[in-house]
Structures are given as C-alpha cells and as structure tokens.
C-alpha cells in the first residue's frame, strides 16, 4: 500500500528522470507462489536530469534477493529499500548495469496488477503502475527501453510461454521445465511489458502488411474454447487492414498475439505484440454471445490493435497525457466500427454512452478535465472523460479543420512523434502546423472540466424571410474550477423547411456555411440565415458535433417535423428522444404531485409510422429505446426521486405499447428470423428492432407480449433472441419470469460469461425484492466477488443499472454497496473504487436519499487503511 496517497501528483511538477534505462533483460522463473525475477537493467545518467542524483526505483510488494552493479554485489550501505521502492544512493555517472533478483507471489496477487494467476494461467497487467510489482524500476512512461524476456516454467503447468515482440529461442530444461525467449526491438515504457504462461488453446491466422511483411497472428484462450475466438481473429484482420487504409499505420513485428484471461480489471490491454484481454471481449458464439457482444469484441480488438501506433509507437510522456493515447484510440475504434457497420447508428450508440457515462461524471463530484492536472491515484482516471470525451475532442478537431487537413495533421503526428513519449501540446502542434491555425482556445477542451451548455433562441422574420439564431454558451463550475472560459464549439446545422432541406445555407451577409458548420467561440454569438421559408425548423448540433447540452425550445410539432424529415439521422433520433423526454419529465412532475401522467397520442403515432415504413432496422431500434431512467434523472438534474422516474418511464412505455400495439405486433412478425444466425450489422439491426417491438408490446399489453416472449425464449437459437426475451420477461413479475430465469440458469450453469448476463438481468429488476435477490445470488456457486466480471455483472449492475433500487429510499442499496466496497478494498482496490463510483450522482437526489448516501460515504471514509483508490474516490465524492 502506498503511504504517500494523500500527496497528489501534479502535472506542473513534471521533470525528466535523472537516469534512463535503455535495455532490460528479464529472466522470469515462474512458480505459483515464489516466482523469481532476475532483471538486468542497462542504465545511464539522463543528460536532461540532475547530475549525481540518487537513483530511486519504484517497487511494490517485492522481496529483494540480490543486487549487483556491473556484476559486483552492492554494499547494504549503498542502497535503501522502503515499501515503495529502492534507492541506489550514489550511482556511477556513466552507463552501468544494475542486476536485481526479486521474489513475488503471483497466487497471492488479488489486485490483478503486476504478475498474477487467472484460472491457473500466469499473466501480467502493468498499466498504469504494475511493472513495479514485478521488479524495481523507473515505472513511468517516459522511460523507454528495449526488452528481452526469458520465461521459464514447468512444462506441464505452462506449456505456452509468451512475451512481447518476436520469439527468438525456446527449449527444454531438466526437471520437467522449459523456457522461451522473446525480444521486442521497439523501445517501450514498462507499462507495455507483458508475459503469459499457461495451458492455452490457440487459433492462428496470417496477415500480410501493405509493405509485404508476413505477420503470424495467434489468439490464445482456455483450451476447448478455440472455436469461440474466430470472430475476434476476423475482427483483428479487418482492424489491421483498416488501419493501413485509414491512417497509413502498418504493423511492425512478425508476430501478434492476443491472450484471453478470465480475471481482468478492465476490458483489455495493448502490451506490445501481446495484447491481453478480458475473455468477455474475445469469446463469442451465436449461442453464448449477443449482437452487442460481437460489436464490443470488434471494437475492443480494434482499439487495442490501434494502440500499436497511438499509444505504443507514440506513447505518453506522463499519465496526465493519458487521453493522448486513449481519446485518440477511442476515436479511431469508433471510426473503424462506423466504417464496418452503420455510421449513424454507431454515432447514436456512442452518444448514448457518452451522455450516460461522461455527462454523469462531468456533472458530479468526480468531474475532471480530459487532461487532469493532478491525481492521487492514476487508476481512477481511466474514465469516460479521458476516453469518451477525449474522443469527442478529436472528432471536433476533425470537424473544425476538415477531413483533409485533419489527415495532414495526423500524418505529421505519426511521423514526427514516432518513438517519442509525447504530450497533448506535441499533438496539437502538429495540427496547428498542418492547418496554419492557432489552436490555443481549442486546447481548453483538454483543461476545462464540465459539460458546456449551448442555449439557442430563434427568431423568424416572415417579411424578410430571415432566421436569426442567437447562441450563448456557459460551462457550470466543477470541483476546483469555478470560472470557465468560452470554448470552441463546432455546431453543425441545417434547416428543415416544409419543402425539405434548405441548401446551401446562406447568411444575410452573403456567405455560405460550408458543410453547415457554425463555430461558436465567444460566450454569445448569432447567425442570421437568408431565404428561409416559413415554418422551417432549425436542426442543430447535427451528428452531435460537440459534447455539449443543447437547450433549444422546440414545440411538439417541430420535434415531429425533425423526426420525420431531418436529413440528419442523428437529429431524427434526437427529436424522438427529446419528445419522449419532455413527456417523461412532465409525467415525473405529475406523479410527484399525485396526479396521473398524460401523454400525447401524436408521439406514439409517430413511432408507429416509423415502423410502418422502416428500412433501417438498427436505427428504428434506437428510436424505440426511449431515454433511460438515468437519462431522465440527468435531465432533471436535482431533487431526483428515482421511483417517480421509474414510474414515469414505465407509464410512457405502457402508453406507447398500447397505442400502437397492432403495429408493434405486425412488425414483430414481419422481422422473424429467416435462416441461421449471422452477427452482421444488418441482421443484428433486425433482431434489435424485433426485440424492441416485443418489449414495448409487452409493456403495453402483457397478456399479448408475455406469451410471445416465452415462445421466443424457448425457441431461440441465438443469445440475442434468448436474452432479449428473458429481459422482457424479467420486467414482469410472475411465474413466467421465474421459470425462464431458472431454465436459463440451469442451461448455462457451466458458462460464467453467460451467467454474467443472467446475474445482470436479475440485478436490474426494478422491484423492492431485488436487493434480496442480489444477496441470494452472491452465494450462487458460480458467483465470486474476487472475479471482476462476476462482481460487475451482479453488484455493478445493481448499483449502476438499477436506479430505483440502488437509490432505495430506505438507504439499504447504499449500505449494501458500501459493505461490498469495504469488503473488496483489501483484495482488489481498483475494482472496489470502480463500484464505489456508483455514488457519483448522490448530490442530485432528493434530500432523504441524499442524506442516506452521505451516511454510507462517511462510513467508508472513516475506515482506516483504505486503499489510495477508494480513499481518493470517497474523498472527492464527499468534497
Ligand atoms: N490501456 C488499456 C486500454 O484502454 C486500459 C488499461 C487500464 N488499466 C488500468 N489498470 N487502469 O486499452
Ligand atoms: Zn485504450
């Protein structure tokens, strides 16, 4: 445990290290409880550092067995060891070799950082600061070395031995042991180090790069599950091709391996040449994975592969620059999925995630800039803000500069910063140079936290046929940042007239709006458009061109106009969501003053009409999925009563379902499966819409919907249809639900990843009995709090996907989560801190719940010996 947890690390304090490590030669003798690591480091004084300084290496839970300098034992007086590292007091001021042997216990490593075992497989996770749990090192990304790794293990226990880079040698040893040597010629920071040893099955493939390099591809999984890795391999090959075409990025080793493990704190990790994945994002078969799982596998395989350039070839100078690799790589994987699937549908899905995760984070106590300026625990900054908002910033840069200039800037970045540990300034300088523009105001997006609001007022002058748009922006205060400056907001817009799209858009001063782009840079600005027909509706922030909240007064008839006629699919979807939101917010108000909600028939009819003429099924499915309870809560912003939100949403869904029941039923029939399952986007869209229609039908008329859901559940030949039906049944108490849950649990008893869906569904049931159900499921034989996937599926889903029950008025949901966080903190602080994040909206609740949440947060804060991870989150949550 770190003792310096209270002292934050600050960006402004950055300075280079006093020493550099150029070469690392590791010899790792794997043993379940006593692995011995011999590290030989080629070190030299850093010309940019302080001459003669002591050499302070990071270390965590290491046992030092020996230490030599240039082959001679180091006297005990020449170095010091503490709980956080080892200091060589007066190292030579010339290149030297430091050789250390450390002993570590992979089996006892429940933090899943450093070297640990997952179902008997030895594996590593070093980002952000896990390498120091393997050997003493300058554990920071601006220290880059060339690595050679020799791995030795019992041949029966670990027949497969993998490292970074290319394999150079392997062989057998006495006593049933064997070894393999891997060498990675590309200098890298230690967070990209990895090794794997274990009994693993493999599927292989081959890829020839654009310059003709033959690359051997391997995906390693639990033996027997090889067939489930086929889609991941296919996605990898498509990613490699796409990165060459879209960004000119070519792979740079002869081997690329992916290993799937079942205990993993995050989604996956981009270690050089040896990506390690949470098996949830590798394994898929029609019977066990949903369409959403297939899409997530494709996206994450691509994401980690794309890091090879944006992350590995060009890495981060320090952890404040995390968004340099993450925001950019998320942007790249989103572009890849958009090209492989439907661009508008992908955009809608991404914006849904952005609002649900990042907007929620940005409006609460954990808000921070895309590039934070201080942290107490870096693991707590792998956030939606760094990743998703970080990607939005790149997307805005592209919108502002145009595709061609953006490409020129990217090319410059990839060429100029190759091999470097770079900063956001280095990145932006490439785009400033390529465009000849000053990007200093734009760079505020990296420094300023909070979600800007853009308020728009419109005024139509019928005589002059002009439409005036007045924009005003403001960003609310966030922790540590009270005063905000105006940011650069690209607003893509159009005008939908009764005759259709007004094109091109011209201002009264005679300029044409290229691409329909208006850039709001000042606190307030306006735009007056010429030649606008009467009864036109402005369509603003098309494609969600900036991560802002748009406040635009639109009447129901305007929303219906946009919904049916907007040329921008994103804003068609947005119009329906806005309409639904308006109805739900009014329903919440009605319910809280004990009156019955009233809804518009016109809204339900509009949805019905969409279904009658539907061609893009995936798009229609996104429309049918009305705003979530959390969406409504965010819209309300304060004094939230989750029960009222739940019932308002239920009531609207029931209303729509009963109003257009026949259309829903007909659509459901029409979209029936024909032929065997295929995970392609078009088929997935059809299944998504079919499940969405059944869901609304059952909400409006259970007597009609439930039997259909039961039939679908029983007949399903794929997981999407099966879990889709089960999710519908789960919303309706009774035997149908309990029978189906039992059948599903029995059928997939041996398949933990599928049981996770089953845990998650039950944890999300919005009924008072759910907390007891969750408690009961915690003693299910397949459940284990120690496994991050299980913990997130059950406890995480309860806390994050069941608003009314986590925020129970009696506080029992809060107490439950607090107990789990405290119980987990000693074993796996990262996971504990993630789960604790569920409290991030606590201040926006009505006062009774707010008080109950605060009590639990204070109970956690009062516990001595909290991990830095949990301590940091709880402190910030209460600040
Ligand atoms: N770099 C990984 C990715 O986004 C995430 C690793 C985060 N790990 C951690 N322990 N915080 O692809
Ligand atoms: Zn990443």
TrEMBL record:
EC category: hydrolase
Highest taxon listed in the record's lineage: Bacteria
Peptidase M1 membrane alanine aminopeptidase domain span: 231-442
Reactions performed catalytically: Release of an N-terminal amino acid, Xaa-|-Yaa- from a peptide, amide or arylamide. Xaa is preferably Ala, but may be most amino acids including Pro (slow action). When a terminal hydrophobic residue is followed by a prolyl residue, the two may be released as an intact Xaa-Pro dipeptide
The Peptidase M1 alanyl aminopeptidase Ig-like fold domain, residue ranges: 450-552
Domain Aminopeptidase N-like N-terminal: 96-192
This protein's record includes keyword Cell membrane: no
EC number per UniProt: 3.4.11.2
Molecular-function GO term, any one: zinc ion binding
Keywords, in A-Z order: Aminopeptidase, Hydrolase, Metal-binding, Metalloprotease, Protease, Zinc
Alphabetized InterPro entries for the sequence: Aminopeptidase_N-like_N, Aminopeptidase_N-like_N_sf, PepN_Ig-like_sf, Peptidase_M1, Peptidase_M1_dom, Peptidase_M1_pepN, Peptidase_M1_pepN_C, Peptidase_M1_pepN_C_sf
Domain Peptidase M1 alanyl aminopeptidase C-terminal: 557-879
Keyword field contains Hydrolase: yes
GO biological process: proteolysis
Cofactor field: Zn(2+)
Function: Aminopeptidase N is involved in the degradation of intracellular peptides generated by protein breakdown during normal growth as well as in response to nutrient starvation.
Similarity field: Belongs to the peptidase M1 family.
Protein name: Aminopeptidase N
């Amino acid at each position: 445990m770190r003792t310096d947890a209270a002292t934050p690390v600050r960006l402004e304090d950055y300075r280079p290290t006093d020493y550099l490590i150029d070469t690392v030669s590791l010899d790792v003798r794997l043993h379940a409880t006593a692995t011995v690591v011999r590290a030989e480091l080629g070190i030299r004084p850093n010309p940019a550092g302080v001459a003669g300084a002591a050499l302070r290496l990071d270390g965590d839970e290491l046992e030092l067995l020996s230490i030599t300098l240039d082959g001679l034992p180091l006297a005990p007086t020449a170095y010091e060891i503490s709980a956080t590292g080892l200091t060589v007091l007066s190292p030579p001021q010339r290149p030297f070799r430091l050789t250390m042997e450390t002993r570590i216990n992979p089996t006892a490593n429940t933090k899943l950082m450093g070297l640990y075992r997952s179902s008997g497989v030895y594996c590593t996770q070093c980002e952000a600061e896990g390498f120091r749990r393997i050997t003493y090192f300058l554990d920071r990304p601006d220290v880059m070395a060339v690595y050679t790794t020799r791995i030795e293990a019992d041949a029966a226990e670990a027949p497969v031995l993998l490292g970074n880079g290319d394999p150079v040698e392997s062989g057998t040893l006495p006593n049933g042991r064997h070894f393999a040597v891997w060498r990675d010629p590309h200098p890298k920071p230690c967070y990209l180090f990895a090794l794997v040893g274990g009994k693993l099955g493999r599927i292989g493939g081959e890829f020839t790069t654009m310059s003709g390099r033959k690359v051997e591809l391997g995906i390693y999984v639990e033996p027997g599950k090889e067939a489930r890795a086929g889609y991941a391999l296919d996605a990898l090959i498509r990613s490699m091709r796409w990165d060459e075409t879209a960004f000119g990025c070519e792979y740079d080793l002869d081997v690329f391996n992916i290993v799937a493990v079942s205990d993993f704190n995050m989604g996956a990790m981009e270690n050089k040449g040896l990506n390690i994945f949470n098996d949830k994002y590798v394994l898929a078969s029609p019977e066990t994975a949903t369409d959403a799982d297939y899409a997530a596998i494709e996206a994450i395989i691509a994401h980690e592969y794309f890091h090879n350039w944006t992350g590995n070839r060009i890495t981060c100078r320090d952890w404040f620059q995390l968004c340099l690799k993450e925001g950019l790589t998320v942007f790249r994987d989103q572009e890849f999925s958009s090209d492989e699937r439907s661009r508008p549908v992908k955009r809608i899905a991404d914006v849904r995630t952005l609002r649900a995760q990042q907007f929620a984070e940005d409006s609460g106590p954990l808000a921070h800039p895309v590039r934070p300026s201080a942290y107490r625990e870096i693991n707590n900054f792998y956030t939606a803000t760094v990743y998703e908002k970080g990607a939005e910033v790149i997307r805005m840069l592209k919108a502002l500069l145009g595709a061609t200039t953006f490409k020129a800037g990217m090319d410059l970045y990839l060429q100029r910063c190759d091999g470097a540990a770079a900063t956001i300034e280095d990145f932006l300088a490439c785009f400033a140079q390529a465009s000849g523009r000053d990007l200093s105001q734009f760079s505020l997006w990296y420094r300023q936290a909070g979600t800007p609001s853009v308020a728009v007022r419109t005024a139509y002058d019928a005589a002059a046929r002009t439409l005036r748009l007045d924009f005003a922006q403001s960003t609310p205060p966030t922790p540590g940042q009270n005063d905000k400056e105006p940011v650069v907001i690209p607003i893509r817009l159009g005008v939908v007239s009764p005759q259709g799209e007004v094109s091109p858009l011209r201002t009264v001063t005679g300029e044409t709006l290229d691409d329909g782009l208006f850039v709001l840079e000042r606190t307030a600005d306006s735009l007056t458009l010429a030649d606008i027909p009467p009864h036109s509706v402005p369509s603003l922030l098309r494609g969600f061109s900036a991560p802002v909240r748009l406040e635009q007064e639109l009447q129901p008839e305007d929303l219906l106009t946009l919904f049916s006629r907007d040329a921008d699919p994103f804003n068609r979807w947005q119009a329906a969501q806005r309409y639904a939101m308006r109805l739900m917010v009014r329903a919440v108000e009605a319910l809280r003053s004990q009156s019955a909600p009233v809804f518009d028939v016109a809204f339900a009819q509009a949805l019905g009409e969409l279904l009658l003429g539907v061609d893009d099924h995936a798009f229609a499915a996104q429309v049918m999925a009305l705003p979530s309870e959390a969406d409504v809560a965010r819209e309300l912003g304060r004094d939230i009563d989750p029960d009222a939100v739940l019932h308002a949403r239920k009531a609207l869904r029931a209303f729509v379902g009963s109003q257009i029941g026949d259309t829903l039923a007909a659509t459901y029939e029409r979209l029936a499966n024909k032929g065997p399952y295929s995970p392609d986007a078009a088929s997935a869209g059809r299944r998504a819409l079919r499940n969405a229609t059944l869901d609304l039908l059952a909400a409006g008329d259970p007597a009609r919907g439930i039997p259909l859901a039961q039939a679908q559940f029983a007949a399903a030949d794929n997981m999407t249809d099966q879990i889709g039906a089960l999710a519908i049944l789960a919303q309706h108490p009774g035997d149908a639900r309990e029978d189906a849950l039992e059948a599903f649990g029995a059928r997939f008893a041996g398949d933990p990843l599928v049981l996770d869906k089953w845990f998650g569904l039950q944890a999300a049931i919005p009924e008072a009995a759910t907390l007891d159900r969750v408690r009961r499921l915690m003693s299910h034989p397949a459940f284990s709090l120690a496994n991050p996937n299980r913990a997130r599926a059950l406890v995480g889903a309860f806390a994050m996907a069941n608003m009314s029950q986590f925020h129970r008025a009696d506080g029992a949901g809060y107490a439950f989560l607090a107990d789990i966080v405290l119980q987990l903190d000693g074993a796996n602080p990262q996971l504990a801190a993630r789960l604790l994040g569920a409290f991030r909206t606590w201040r926006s609740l009505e006062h009774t719940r707010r008080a109950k949440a605060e009590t639990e947060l204070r109970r956690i804060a009062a516990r001595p010996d909290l991990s830095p991870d949990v301590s940091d989150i709880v402190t910030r949550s209460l600040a």
